[in-house]
Amino acid sequence: MRLYRTLMWLLLPPDFRREFGDEIQRAVTARLDGARARGAGLAPVWASEVWDLVRTGAREWSALAAEVAGARIDDTGRGDGIMQTLARDIRYAFRTLMRAPVFTAVVVTTLGLGIGANTAIFSVVDAVLLEGLPYDEPDRLVNVWQDATLRGGPDTEWFNFEDYDDLRAEPNLLEAAGAWNAWQPTLTGIDEPVVLSGVSVTHAMLSGVFRARPQLGRFFLPADDTPDAPGVVVLSHRTWQERFGGDPGVLGRSLTLSEVPHTVIGVAEPGFQVPFAPNAELFRAMGVQGPVQCTRGCYGTRVVGRLAPGVSVEQAHIRARALAARLEEAYPGTNTNLSFNVVGLQADLTRGSARGLWVLLGAVGFVLLIACTNVANLLLARAAARDGEISVRVALGAGRGTLFRQLLTESLLLAAAGGLVGVVLAWWGTGALLALAPDGSVPRLDSVSLDLGVLGFTAAITLLTGVLFGLLPSWGAARPDIHRTLRATGRSGGGLGATMRRWLVVLQVAMAMVLLVGSGLLIRSFDRLSSADLGFEPDGVLALQMALPGQRYTESAQIQDFYFSLLDRLRAVPGVEAAGAVSSLPLAGQDGDASFLVEGEPPPPPGISQAAWTRPVTEGYFEAAGLDLVEGRDFTLGDDGEAPRVVLVNETLAERYYGGDAVGRRLAFGSSPDGANWRTIVGVVGDVRHFGLKTPPRPAVYFPYRQVTFAQMAVAVRTSGDPTALTPEVRRVIADLDPSLAASGIRPLRELVDQALGPDRFVTLLLGLFALTALILAAVGVYGVISYGVTRRYREMGIRLALGADGATLRRLVVRGGLGLVGSGVVLGLVGALGLTRLLQSLLFGIEATDPVTFATTTLTLTAVAMAACWIPALRASRADPVRVLREE
Q1: Which residues lie below 8 Å from residue 19, measured CB to CB, with a gap of 6+?
Q2: Burial of 448 (0-12, 13-18, 19+ CB in 10 A)
Q3: Three-class secondary structure of residue 503 per DSSP
Q4: How do 186-188 and 339-344 pair as beta strands?
Q5: Taken in order 328, 334, 337, 340, is the CA torsion positive or negative?
């Protein structure tokens, strides 16, 4: 809080600070404590509070300035008040800058790039992290998770319906609660069959939790949410417009979804989306799926709630954990070591992208600071060139305060022009950012825009930028040594201005060093991530999802016949090398697990997780997806329902539970060995990065599909050519087998890998671009200062040559001086990088934030570029004409 109090002292007017400062500090402390209690990051809270402080300070200082301006208007009628003086300063500054068009253009362009980049990145940060969700009282919306960390599981485990019922019945916790699951029905009877993206929700979700309103009809009632209720659906507004032409008569219409009739009872209002499934085309009541199967000890649904009035997220979290403790006492067999986590919905939705966005905002802020130091150096050089003019004005009676105000007005005018250019560049840059961002990697990107809040941020950083780069040059230029200046020839260097220019170069190099190290770490991390062993070979594979309707495919034999016929026909297609099916593709974001027993070992005690992810597979799947059989054998046609039960396990399970010697051993699923159905392990399969490229492999078990049959399967088809070219033939084969079916998610398996790499690629690319920009700006800054110093010392260089010095000596002199500045900046930057790059650790894969190779490489790169920037003016210094210099003397 000491830093925050310092910012208050700097940004708030004294009277306002004395009256409201204590209250502001208490509110900020409460928000920070709340963030700590729910385990959320403090950086977003700090950023939001500092931004609020800046806006408050700007508002209060503006009000105070208006009050002072009104009080200082000259009562004699001369009209020479503060506004008139300001207008005169602006006109004079404009004329002065127009007399130096090249200087003005360079400064405005430099500032425009920095301000535009900051505005574009902030527009994304504002929409994703700072702007509230588009619902009524969004701060009261929360995600509720089961916390299984004490069991060795995640802190974001799914719910079961019995624990969910206890949660929503708890007093003073949730005003409304809803459960949801993904749903992908096949729509038939309208043109060709098509798979829709849907969501199953409990009746309170739409109207109670999100407080949405229907455009037409109604939402779900409790009577709709029961097993014996008729099927009803609510359409999204977009689906109503695109698939049904906005026809009001759609209400009451019967739709056949996965061969089950459903009646349309409502249409959602325009723009309404549920945040956990923003592309959902329709909703159905969850209860019609049948009697609840997922009871205590099962994890099959997810929960969203709206906090009770007056209850904070922190209070709800504490009360939910107290409820979990009572349930643990009441049901020790299923709830031991199981707690609840209540997390703000927006914070939960953005937890995967927040760190990367804050890093990008910080990086682009560094770029702006480097741009400011470049502009400050230009202003210092220009002020040195105007020493004579300013000294004459002081000698004629101009006050230093007047000069300072006038020079600062020039700086602010330049900043304002840069801000206007920045807004134009941000408008273009925001579109480029959205195009670069991978689909689904950053939530709420569709709401990114240059709204009033973003433009207010642009105005604030424009003003701050003008003060940052203009304050020191204006202050120094307004205090000239008029006696020295009027006597000087204008060819000597040194003084306070030269010292400031050198320090600004050191600062530039240090900030560039930090950005270069950060981008270098991310580039090396991305290189390792993109070349990591996935455990499967995605190239040349076409993937698709199939779901057979339970109304018609009721028997395992029917389901098996369909999939085996489909695979046989696909293998007969020219160009197909292998085909197989699995319950869940790698990196597809879905899977199911179950507890198991190891033969010869006692069952784990209650509350200790011993679970494996389960995946039925057909023959040919391992070959089609490129999985390696490490030991033992693959499944065969003989592993059917009449044969002994067999499984394959992955390397992680074999090593963890069998010491690497798993073939021939047995396991069984369940929690009790009594009556257990033991299965023999006949092979070990290589580990697959199933849940993310950075997530270590987890224990997994593969079942032969002829013994464990699922109606919903993913199909992998390996081809000898472009897998997308096979799409029409795959659709034709499915239609020939069953005209009422359709496949979803038909795409190359490589797309799943690219999608998983997308967020890291996005952050790495942008940070690399910012680092490159910083490197160029730093090189320009070094070149400018060294070049200006050579110009000011041109007479000295000529005299040295006349006295016998050679060009190599002068070049070494100039380069040595430049490298001294660069070396100081590099050392300062390395110290800063060692501290700041630790913030990147959660974004890195396979390297540490202190990676010595990265630090060494970036140091050499920056030093080499700086040497090149020094060499050009050094070469010019070595070619000074001593004859001309002596003649001028």
Answers
A1: none
A2: buried
A3: helix
A4: unpaired
A5: negative
Q: Is 629 helix (H, G, I), strand (E, B) or coil?
A: strand
More confident residue, 2 or 215: 215
DSSP type of residue 195? E
Q: Look-up: residue for tokens 């209650």?
A: 606
Q: Is the pLDDT of residue 795 over 70?
A: no
Length of the chain: 889
Q: Which two tokens stand for residue 819?
A: 């490298």
Residue 594, beta-bridge partner list: 612
CA–CA gap between residue 701 and residue 614 (Å, rounded)? 5
The amino acid occupying position 227 is P
C-alpha–C-alpha distance, residues 219 and 289, integer Å:
18
Confidence of residue 16 (pLDDT cuts 50, 70, 90): confident
Buried b (16+ CB within 10 A) or exposed e, 61-95: eeeeeeeeeeeeeeeeeeeeebeebeeebbeebee
Q: Which residues pair with 285 in a beta bridge?
A: 201
Give the residue-averaged pLDDT of 718-740: 93
Q: Which residues, in sequence order, are CB contacts of 476 under 8 Å at separation 6+? A: 380, 383, 496, 497, 500
Q: What is the mean pLDDT of residues 649-673?
A: 90
CB 509 within 8 A of CB 819: no
Nearest-5° angle of CA 129, CA 132, CA 136?
155
Q: How far apart are CA 756 and CA 421, in angstroms?
A: 36
At 443 the pLDDT is 75
Which residue matches tokens 């690219």? 754
- 8 A C-beta contact, residue 870 and residue 818: yes
CB 870 within 8 A of CB 552: no
Name the token pair of 766.
């942008």
pTM of the model: 0.77
Which of the two residues, 717 and 42, has the higher pLDDT score? Answer: 717
CA–CA distances in Å: residue 836 to residues 323, 363, 441, 478, 839? 40, 11, 25, 37, 6
| Confidence bin at 727 (pLDDT 50/70/90) | very high
CB–CB of 712/182 below 8 Å? no
Looking at residue 13, what is its pLDDT?
Answer: 76
Contacts with 241 (C-beta within 8 Å, 6 or more apart), sequence order: none
Alpha carbons 342 and 714: distance in angstroms, whole number: 34
CA gap 841, 577 in Å, rounded: 42
| Tokens encoding 680 | 């023999």
What confidence score (pLDDT) does residue 410 get? 80
**Quick one: pLDDT at residue 39?**
61
Measured between alpha carbons, how far is 817 from 867 in angstroms, rounded to an integer? 11
Contacts 24+ apart (CB under 8 A), 844-853: 844/521, 844/522, 844/525, 845/525, 845/526, 845/528, 845/529, 845/532, 845/693, 845/694, 845/760, 846/525, 846/528, 846/529, 846/532, 847/521, 847/524, 847/525, 847/528, 849/521, 851/521, 851/524, 853/524
| Cβ–Cβ < 8 Å for 711, 547 | yes
Q: Is the Cβ–Cβ distance between 378 and 472 less than 8 Å?
A: no
> 102 CB contacts (<8 Å, ≥6 apart)?
none
Give the residue from 256, 202, 150, 201 showing the smallest Cα distance to 740.
256
Q: Pick from 762, 629, 617: which is nearest to 687 by CA?
A: 629
- pLDDT tier, 84 (very low <50, low <70, confident <90, very high otherwise): low
- From the list 148, 142, 150, the residue with the least C-alpha distance to 167 is 142
Runs of H (alpha helix) within 478-494: 482-487
The beta-strand segments (E) located in 500-645 are 541-547, 576-582, 592-598, 611-617, 629-632
CB atoms within 10 A of CB 145: 22
Structure tokens of 341?
């986590």
pLDDT greater than 80 at residue 492? no
Q: Give the residue from 733, 714, 448, 446 showing the smallest Cα distance to 569.
A: 733
Spell out the alpha helix ranges (H) of 218-312: 237-244
Bridge partners (DSSP) of residue 147 are: 339
Q: What is the average pLDDT across 872-883?
A: 68
